[in-house]
């Protein structure tokens, strides 16, 4: 199921290489999204989320409404969010 794969991928932890390619502006946006996600978890879950680090979902920087998928390039797919 496509949606299950998207969900699983968005909850993967990022790598140091992923972080290294971000601009300073993107780093700030992702860090804010990470902090917001952790705080929204609340209670003991907040501690668990903070310990697990930045996840791919944080790259969406709050744009978490699924709008569709778009074919790009040679078989690539782009996630469209709002």
Automatic annotation (TrEMBL):
<dbReference type="Pfam" id="PF20415">
    <property type="entry name" value="DUF6699"/>
</dbReference>
<feature type="domain" description="DUF6699">
    <location>
        <begin position="1"/>
        <end position="72"/>
    </location>
</feature>
<dbReference type="InterPro" id="IPR046522">
    <property type="entry name" value="DUF6699"/>
</dbReference>
<protein>
    <recommendedName>
        <fullName>DUF6699 domain-containing protein</fullName>
    </recommendedName>
</protein>
């Amino acid at each position: 199921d496509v949606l299950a794969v998207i969900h699983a991928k968005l909850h993967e932890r990022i790598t140091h290489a992923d972080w290294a390619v971000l601009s300073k502006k993107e780093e700030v946006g992702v860090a804010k999204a990470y902090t917001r996600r952790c705080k929204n978890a609340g209670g003991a879950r907040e501690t668990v989320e903070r310990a697990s680090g930045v996840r791919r979902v944080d790259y969406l920087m709050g744009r978490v409404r699924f709008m569709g998928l778009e074919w790009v390039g040679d078989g690539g797919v782009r996630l469209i969010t709002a």
